[in-house]
Design a protein that fits this description.
Layout lengths: L1 E7 L2 E8 L6 H4 L7 E6 H17 L4 E6 L8 H14 L6 E6 L1 H13 L5 E6 L2 H7 L4 E6 L2 E8 L4 E5 L8 H18 L1 H9 L1 H5 L3 H21 L14 H10 L7 H18 L7 H11 L12 H8 L11 E7 L2 E6 L2 H10 L1
Parallel strand pairs: 2-9, 3-4, 3-5, 5-6, 6-9
Antiparallel strand pairs: 1-2, 7-8, 10-11
Helix pairs in contact: 3-4, 5-6, 5-9, 6-7, 6-9, 6-11, 10-11, 10-13, 11-12, 11-14
The structure holds nicotinamide-adenine-dinucleotide, the ligand O=C(O)C(=O)C[C@@H](O)[C@H](O)[C@H](O)COP(=O)(O)O and zinc ion.
Zinc ion binds next to helix 11.
């Protein structure tokens, strides 16, 4: 097992990454307090809720669960309200814990319920997708979607601990596994060219879910995320780099009703578009986008916008991105593989990249 400490203004917390952690209550039980609301989705609950519930029963803890429908469409204000109702019904007090058992959707929504209930109670993240283990569960961004924009409603609320059991990824389908790899590639692209090259050389064992390669990829990703969060917890500067590919990606997710693309798939396409824009603006060497495309394709991720998506609608949705200031669209651009920057971008150039894709 590998442990990374995430340093934040409110203190530090551990991210445990390893095999068999769900069956090792000694690792995670001590991070719980008071009554526990386990938030999960109907796929994950069928697989892992009983195991977690048994531990809670054995220690005599008062708990209940809230099981949401699986998928991005469940990340709504209505379901956040359901989580708050469940906390009230549980009789949760300030010492209660929300235990988020699932992917990034569950983690973001449960985290936001914990952030808002009684102005903030403890949350423990138990991510069960690759994407949530390498990114969503770490760093304290919580929230839900609005029909007009991704993650428009939310709060920063750091977890008390993150328990990433890579054995849970065995049951993940290929599509969701690959979607998680997009955020792994992101760390290489924005801050670590050597990691990017390592991914290029290890694509086969990663595709084959080999535990050693997977453990290394998850651990390296968590370390990158922990470093960025420690440096800029509330996204005043450097943290915005973690949004590489997300301005395009979030617009694509919203334009397609949060139903057609996994978040990671939309981010993969978005990273390619952002790199093409970086090339168009002369920020990065021509050919960088092709190298990125090659790796993403090797990891079975999409790299181009489908023809039927309305480019002007995407542009309109990008205007609501949280990084924008003074009505100007700001995007993460690459300067080279391993180095990125956030810049205001001319609308005509963004439009050109969208139209050419
Ligand atoms: N807070 C952050 O910093 C942050 C970072 C990245 C992404 N996100 C958010 O995370 C969300 C995407 O997360 P995701 O990709 O995990 O999606 P998800 O939570 O929808 O999970 C994907 C699918 O995998 C299923 N699943 C989960 N664990 C499983 C398992 N072990 N075995 C079998 N099936 C399993 C789920 O039921 C779901 O159908 C998006 O809403 C995105 O905005 C947040
Ligand atoms: O942790 C961050 O910061 C990120 O930007 C990580 C992203 O991968 C993640 O998708 C995040 O939820 C996007 O945040 P948003 O502020 O653009 O909604
Ligand atoms: Zn993301």
């Amino acid at each position: 097992m590998k442990v990374t400490q995430v340093r934040t203004a409110g203190g530090s917390y551990p991210v445990y990454v390893g095999q068999g952690l769900l069956s090792m209550p000694s690792i995670w039980q001590r991070h719980l307090d008071g009554r526990v609301l386990v938030v999960s989705d109907d796929t994950v609950a069928g697989l892992y809720l009983e195991r977690v519930g048994r531990v809670l029963d054995e220690e005599g803890r008062r708990w209940r669960s809230l099981v949401l429908p699986a998928g991005e469409e469940a990340k709504t204000v209505a379901n956040w309200q359901r989580a708050l109702d469940a906390l009230v019904e549980l009789g949760a007090q300030r010492d209660a814990t929300v235990l988020a058992l699932g992917g990034g959707v569950v983690g973001d929504l449960a985290g936001f319920a914990a952030a808002s209930y009684m102005r903030g109670i403890r949350v423990v993240q138990m991510p069960t997708t690759l994407l949530a283990q390498v990114d969503a569960a770490v760093g304290g961004k919580t929230g839900v979607n609005h029909t007009s924009g991704k993650n428009l409603i939310g709060a920063f609320h750091q977890p008390a601990a993150v328990v990433a059991d890579i054995d849970t990824l065995i049951s993940l389908d290929d599509r969701d596994y690959c979607a998680g790899l997009a955020e792994v590639v992101k760390y290489g692209a924005i801050r670590d060219e050597r990691f990017f090259s390592w991914l290029e050389s290890r694509a086969e064992p990663i595709n084959a879910h080999m535990p050693d390669a997977l453990l290394e990829a998850v651990h390296a990703s968590v370390q990158h995320k922990a470093e960025v969060v420690a440096a800029d917890e509330r996204e005043a500067g450097e943290r915005a780099l973690l949004n590489f590919g997300h301005t395009f990606g979030h617009a694509l997710e919203t334009a397609t009703g949060y139903a057609r693309f996994r978040h990671g798939e939309a981010v993969a396409i978005g990273m390619v578009l952002a790199t093409r824009l970086s090339e168009l603006l002369g920020k990065v060497r021509v050919g960088t986008a092709e190298r990125l495309v090659h790796l993403l394709e090797h990891l079975k991720l999409p790299t181009a916008l489908p023809g039927d998506v309305d480019r002007e609608r995407l542009l309109a949705l990008m205007r609501l991105d949280k990084k924008n200031r003074a009505d100007r669209i700001r995007l993460v651009l690459l300067e080279e593989l391993g180095r990125a920057t956030v810049e205001t971008c001319p609308t005509d150039d963004i439009r050109e990249v969208l139209e050419r894709s």
